[in-house]
Predict the 3D structure of the following.
Amino acid sequence: IKVKASALNYRDVEIARGSYHTKFALPLVPLSDGVGEVVAVGAEVSRFKIGDRVCGTFWQRWVAGGFVMAEASYQRGGPIDGMLSEYALLDEQAAVLAPAHLSDIEAATLACAGV
């Protein structure tokens, strides 16, 4: 996606300060929350099309079920790269359509901080 807005939350600040309970390997693109426009899709992608506005999700592989299904090694903004970039590569299971009634700035806060 072409990132349109990203949001800073307390987790991101702790990671940058080195006070988060987990240390991540560097270099690391920070920020877990963001929104952008789909500019390309893979051959197998069926949920999104070019031009869709999407939010990345925080837990990349947790799409349903109890919290024990969430894999800590797939958190955006640490340990995997976050949304503070011009472009971000998202798995189609790690994105949702951004609510149309929210601006990019508002929608950018949904992944971790808003939810």
The longest strand covers residues 2-7. Strands lie at 2-7, 33-37, 53-56, 95-97.
